[in-house]
Amino acid sequence: MQNLKDKRIIFAGTPDFAAVHLQALIDNGIKPVAVYTQPDRPAGRGNKLKPSEVKVLALENGIEVRTPENFKDETDVDAFKELKADICIVVAYGVILPESIINACPFGCINVHGSILPMYRGAAPIQRALLDGQKKTGVSIMKVAKKLDAGDVYTIATLDIEDSDTSGTLFDRLANLGARTLLEALDGIFAGTLKATAQDEALATYAKKLTKEEALIDFTKTAYEVELKVRGLSPWPVAITTLDDVKYKVFHVQAVNEDSNTEPGCITKIDKDGILVSCSKGQVRLVTIQAPGKGQVKAADYARSKKDEFTIGKKFG
User: What is the pLDDT of residues 92-112, one digit of tens each?
Assistant: First the structure.
């Protein structure tokens, strides 16, 4: 790695995924001249303002933090330019950058995106890849462009999606992969040896933001599709199902390649491993669930404690 410590770098990011990349820079002696992150947002039951993970990390390391809502105010654009940065690194920032910011640095703005571009442009590439049953995903280092995630790509690193992966575990794995790939790419970008290539627009797909409305499990899908939904919506917004108008969060299921003759959504068996529910093809075993106002529990234990509510033939959803 060439000496990047002398480069003036701005870092823009907000959640944990971005904080992993900022930590990697710091660990390698690369201290940004400033960090941009979203303003503190209300969070938790008390709705108290909470700083982003990136802000917390930056302040712990004595890095200046800036939190404009956007760059519509020219004074914010001017303040950005006054930093005279060589490059701006953007990771899950969540703020649209105008061309005045994109073009402010000699080496431009580069973005770490959690997909194999041009597939899964947009807000939820990691979750959508898992929900769609993809077997492989990755990170792309690209130039920031005016059109969403459509910039020229410097490099792509890939990894296999494991059968046990949830969106949470994929976030962690891709964050670490992205941090390593970013450091390698910075060398080539500053040296001029790493060239960016245009994306193939014909292959572009869009990964729209997740919503709570998507959380309801549809047992008329196949068992494998139900399993993908549960994994893809963990840790947020978490898949849900209802029984007797009681809403249950579902954190872990297992697809079972065994058809039943019952209507999709019906309980076919309750054993020590969980609650078996029929699907259009195969069945799913509910392994870990959460009732309203309760903590996560083994579905088998909960069903045994509520024998009158969980009976064979009863239907979810």
Answer: 999 999 999 999 999 999 999
